Structures are given as C-alpha cells and as structure tokens.
Fold this protein.
Amino acid sequence: MATKKLGKQTVCFSTPPVISSTYSIVGPKEGEGPLGKYFDLVLEDEFWGEKTWEKTESKIVKECISGCLGQEPVSNEDVDFLLSGDLLNQCVSSSFGIRERSIPYLGLFGACSTFVESLALGSMLIDGEMADTIIGSTSSHFCSAEKQFRFPLELGTQRPPTSQWTVTGAGAALLKAGGNGPKITHATIGKIVDMGIKDANNMGAAMAPAAIDTLYQHFQDTGRTPEYYDYIFTGDLGKIGKKIVKELIKTQGYNLDSNYEDCGCLIFDGETQDTHSGGSGCACCATTFCGYIYNQLKSQKLKKVLLCATGALMSPTTAQQQESILGIAHTISIEI
Amino acid sequence: MATKKLGKQTVCFSTPPVISSTYSIVGPKEGEGPLGKYFDLVLEDEFWGEKTWEKTESKIVKECISGCLGQEPVSNEDVDFLLSGDLLNQCVSSSFGIRERSIPYLGLFGACSTFVESLALGSMLIDGEMADTIIGSTSSHFCSAEKQFRFPLELGTQRPPTSQWTVTGAGAALLKAGGNGPKITHATIGKIVDMGIKDANNMGAAMAPAAIDTLYQHFQDTGRTPEYYDYIFTGDLGKIGKKIVKELIKTQGYNLDSNYEDCGCLIFDGETQDTHSGGSGCACCATTFCGYIYNQLKSQKLKKVLLCATGALMSPTTAQQQESILGIAHTISIEI
C-alpha cells in the first residue's frame, strides 16, 4: 500500500500539523542562563514548595501543560491525546503530572529523545486523521536524575569534564490539525545505534552517532541538504557530542559548520555556569524548543528548522552489567 | 477537522489493519500452566543461558521478534516501525532486545498496558498511511520484576494472597495494512484513573477502575454492548481485579457475566501453581493474546474479541513517597 513515507525512515505529512502554542518552565539555573528571557516561567528554587524532587518534577509537568493550554481557547476536553514521557523510572513525572486531566494518554519512552518522539507521533496521529488536537510534553529535573542515575547529591561527587548537567524543567507543545503557526512537515524516526560506548559520564559521545545516523537518513530520504534549513538543532549532545557530529557527518558528505547548534550548548553558559560539557535531559531540548526556538519561528527569525533529539537508552542496571549505552535520535522538520 | 474518532476516546479504523502473525515465548512456569500448548516457545529455565535476568528478558524480546518475523516472508527492512516497551527501568529489555535490528523504533511506556498500546498506536499509524508494516511487542520477567519492584528473590519474602505473579515471557505481533487475518477495527485510548489505592501488593484492585473506565467508554463511543463480542479479555487484573470489574461495571449498566475473562486468570492454574490472585506483567496479556487468543481467532472459535490491557503507573519511589497507584487501560476490538 502507498504510504506517506519518503525513503526508509521519514514520513512526509500531507497536511502538516501546526504547533499552535508552547509553554516552558525551567529551574533557577536555567533561568540564569543565556536563554533565560525566553522561558515562560523560571522557578525560584528546585523544590517549588514540594517535599521531594520527584513531586516537584510532576508539578512542573502539570503546570507546564496548564500553561500550554492557557495560551489557547482549548480545555482538557478538546485534547484528543496527550503524549508524554520522561527519565524517571516508570515515567512517573509524566503520569503523576497529568493524573488529574481526563485526557486519553499515550505514554512514551525515548529517554532524551522523548520530546521529538511526542511531536513526531502526534503529527502522525493528526495527519492520519486520528486526532485534531494533541499535547506533547516531557520533563527532567537535575536532582531527581542525579539521584536515580548517578550519585546522591549529598555526596558532592566530583563531575568529570565530559559530564553534562540535566536541565530542570518541562516543555509542552499543542499540535493542531489547522490554524496559524509553525508547521511540522516531516518526521524521521531513528533506529537504535550501538557504538559500544560504556562511559555513562560521556553521554554526548554515546548519543552523537545516533544523531548522525538520523540526520544523514533525513537528508537522504528528503533529498535535502543541511543548507535547506536556516538552523539545525540537536537536543542535548553538549560540547563533546556536538563536535563529534560536526566532524563525523562530513565523512558522510554533509557539512554542518555554518548552521548547526546543540540545545545543550545553548541553554547554559559554559564559561560561568560550571556545566562542563553542557545541558542534557529530556527538558533540555523541550525547554529550548518551547522557549527559544519556537519564539524564533513565530517571529520568523528562523523559518526552516530541523530539530533532532537524541536519547541514551540505558539504565544503571545495564551499566552495572557492562552493557553499552544505546543511542537513538528522532528528528522533525518545522517550517513557517 | 473531521477525524476517525468515535465519541471521546475511540478511533474507528477506515481500513482495519491485519494482525498478520504473532509469536510468544514464555518461561517454564507459564509453559506448565493451562495455556502451555498455545505458546510458540517454552523456556526450560528462567535464565536461558544468560548471566542475569535482565539479559534473559532482552534475549526473550529479541527471539520473540525473530519468531514473529519468521512466520512471514518479512525481514527487518520491510518493517516500517517497531513499537515496544516494558516494565524495567528505562525500558531496557525492549531496547537491548532490538538493538541489532535496523528498524525505526518508537519506545512506549504503558506499564502492563503496553502491548495493547503498541497495537493501538501501530494501527493508527497504518490506517493513517504512515506505515505499511509494524511490529508491536512487550515483555516481562518474574525475576527481574520482583527484584526491581518488590524484594530480592533470595529473601524468600512471603507473598500476600492479593499479590500476582509476573509472567516471564514476551509477545510480538506483526501488523500489516492488508492481507488475511484478524483485523483491528477500533482502539479506545484510556485516561489515567486514580482511585487512591496504595497497596502495591494489590495491583488488580488498583487497575480495575481503569479497565472499567475504558470498557465503559468503548461501549459508549461505539454504541456496542458486551454482547456484541464473543469474548472480552482484560490483561492482568487477576482474580480480585476481575471480580471488581464484573461487579462495578454493572453499576454502569453493562453486564460481563457471560463472556469476560482476565488473562491473569487464564495463564496460571490458581489451584496448583501458587500464583495467588493470578498472572500479571506486560507479558501476561501479550503472551495470552499472541498464544491463545490469536489461535482462537485464526481458527474462528472466536470471531469478535475485545482486548483491554491495564497498566499500573507507579514506581517504588512513588510508593515510598505515599503516592497512590495510578491505573490506565487501553482496548482494541479485533474481528475476523
């Protein structure tokens, strides 16, 4: 049967869904960073009145979706599906964050690629006439992520230079079948890429090959080159992963020297904020998109954007069992 | 815009996708149960030559998908998307199980509702012309689940009568845009239902309200009654959850007394296998469907089936933080 697929991994939407509104909430450190003024809400502390970091993260998800719906004459009842996921075990910040909403919920897990996964799938559901209105969201929290994936914060463990700083925050986007705003024209769904990297303190290096694989496939499938886009953004590779992407994609015949940046390099000031290789976490791509990039699209400073979010598919258990860190990347093309 | 939605939560497919083949692998205990003869492969022990239960679970996923593809003249390259998820932290049994396949991967998390979530979403992607061929799969393993969610097995902790036994196994289904076989005609996507239940040893009670909510909505959206179906199956409510569903759905005007069963009650012999309230885990619904129910559909002993998988959205961390157990249920209607 004929499908809307171009090439191996890319779907080309016949009626590109519209990103009708977005909302972003970040923690204080992100608010002090270079993109601070673009976020809708900057928290004063990492707890926001809650007793645990996990409860804070759920509250951030809850309020972020409220904020996103609040930009539009849209209520819970108008939303066909909510697609969300996060880094916490069993994706609990998403499920507890949305438990009071009566919205049909499809839980996702794509690690830090989740935001783009939610928008890619959401676009497929809308363009396939399964839905009219969809919310995609994701979150992360520096403290809950460090506790779960690395060391208790109280230990004050020294961080190696390759490590990244998990962004505290959430981003939510409202997709609609029609209307005005930036449109998602293509989605390229990634494959798992396993390069055998095992250093959980060097996620950028582990995820970069997945970003290269998906970007390469996007260009192959669409027949486009990087120059087609005003800007190409990856999700949270940080300085090291970004350098790898720029170098290695040249061996595949594409050049990203002039119009490529990584959200993990944008969200923190590497000189003054002590974040080593840069930002990471599901919220890195989500807040940078919902805050900064969406603003640039709406104001038409950027008209053609490729957003590629990468995820590291691993757990502390697999790391302890000497497994490598699997990478995946999904990408969407957004135009206004 | 007009969509394929009926009512609030149900999608009615215009060209119902076909479940072209299935495959199921189970552990020895499941093989000794009442459905033993229906499974494609029964393991001799819980390790299958691996050193850890997590690695075993990944191997089960890997071989289950191979088995599913092996039933058909279909190879990795022909599969547009693979949709999968599981109970392990960061869904690692899925991602490590499929890492060698070059198939675009969409990771899901719906706890024990994942199997139906994967078939529902897969059907939406096919009916929306985003794809032609999709695999949906999920897994669980008694030992990895007990270790992660409850107590180390070595402790020999006594299990309360309300507890359930996580099924060791995996199920995979191949969905295609056309061809012969049982067809998925409708999908009803559930909302999160929070009844404030906090007993992690009584998952059936925690998830039953979500099953009732989604079944009720399915009947409302489609205008059907339970009598329309030859049989209605829930995923892993066990004896206690099943009893709650049968009783409470009567208060909403529907009667399930004559044609309703729960996979958790079918897969083990409650009298002799010491599984207390019954089977649970992602693989409970997946293996019962891919083994037993699919067989009944293919042989036309059952022609109209409603499959409703329930998930408990919680983690040990949320339980320790006194949060309730959230429930969700997704359902698909399958006809031949």
